[in-house]
Each structure stands twice: as structure tokens, then as C-alpha cells.
Amino acid sequence: MTEVAGSDIDDDHEWVEVLAWASGLVSPDPAERAAALDRHARARMQVEAAYDRLNEGHFRRLWFGPRMRAYHRACGRCFPGALWSGSGYAYGEISTWPRLPLALLFLEWEARHPQEWTGHAKDWGTKQALIRDLAATDHDRYLRAKLVDLVDLAVQRTYRCKDREYVRVARAVDGDELRDRLHRAQRSENPAARLHAGYVLLLLDRPEIPNTRHVWRTWLSGTLT
User: Fold this and answer.
1) Residue 39 has pLDDT above 70, yes or no
2) Global pTM?
3) Cα 149 from Cα 112, distance rounded (Å)
């Protein structure tokens, strides 16, 4: 296992415990969520301060020594740095990664509170990478349920950057529960939900159709059936 650079913690399980407060970012309790947002904002300020200190002094000292260790330590205490500051995972093995709960939390936060996520932790590349790896891994009952929830949440809202990647997840966890939710969304009064659910259902029924930008735009134009 790779040690978190400059941290006092070299175990991913311990790191998840350190960041247990972050679950408040998706809490239904407004007070709990506000407290978590405040804590995350303060953590991001520490990242910025640590980065500023990196740029003080002679250039050759930037990439070594206590300042760099302090910067990595600060990055690991908020998103998205908390996902990448420790040991990584091999492709297709994210399901056994100790930081999987943090990865799911990061995506759920973006799905439930997109504006807050954009203001505090926006990273489209990390979103895309996590979704793709979650689609490609093994899915136990817990992970399957979480991924069905994420697809459902993405379908219910106006399209956001990299949301089309959730089609990969839908195809990976296709089943009665997911299709029931998609059909409910398709019958809802929410025009975005009807549009997105219809697209996902079409690609579930027709696996030969690639999930490309062209196909998505053709669907939006109403000419793909």
C-alpha cells in the first residue's frame, strides 16, 4: 500500500474514518449538511494556503520537503483530493478499494446537490473516471443498490457534464429495480426525467447502439427510435 504523502495516516481504512464527517454533505438534515459544507470549505482553504506556501521561496524547494508534505496532507482532507491522495486501485478493482465509500459519496454529493458540489469540489475528470471504473467492476448487493440510486438521481435532473457516463453503469446493473425506476421516471411530469429515462431504456434494450455523443444528440433531436 502506498503511503499518503505527508500524512500521519498510512491506512486507507483509517483515512475513511478521518473523513466520516463528510457523510453530512448528503444529509437530509439542513443543519448537518451546512456544518459539513463549512468544514469542507475550511479544508479547501487549507489546501489553498498550503499551495501558496509551496510557491514561496526558491523554485527548487517546491517539490520536496515539509511544504509539499503539508500540501498533500491538506489535499487528502477534502474532495476531490481525498480520493487520490492515498493508495489507488487497479482498473476493475474499485469494488474492493477501502476508499470506495468516499468515491460513492463524491458522486452522490454531485447528484443530490450539484451546485454545492460545483462550488466546493468540481472535478469532471474524477467524476468520469469513477463512473467508468464503477461500471467495470464487480457489483455486490450493496454496490449495485448504490449504483441504481445514482443512475436514478442522474436521470431525474437536467443534464450535467459527464452524466451520459451513467449509461455504462445502467448497463452494468440492469435489472428489475433499475427498470422500474426508469419507467416511473418516464411517466413522471418532469420533462428531463422523461427524456433521460427514455434514452437509458433504449440503450438497455438495444445494446448494439453505442453510447456516443452523436447518439445522444440524435436522441435529443427526436430522430432516434
Assistant:
1) yes
2) 0.89
3) 11
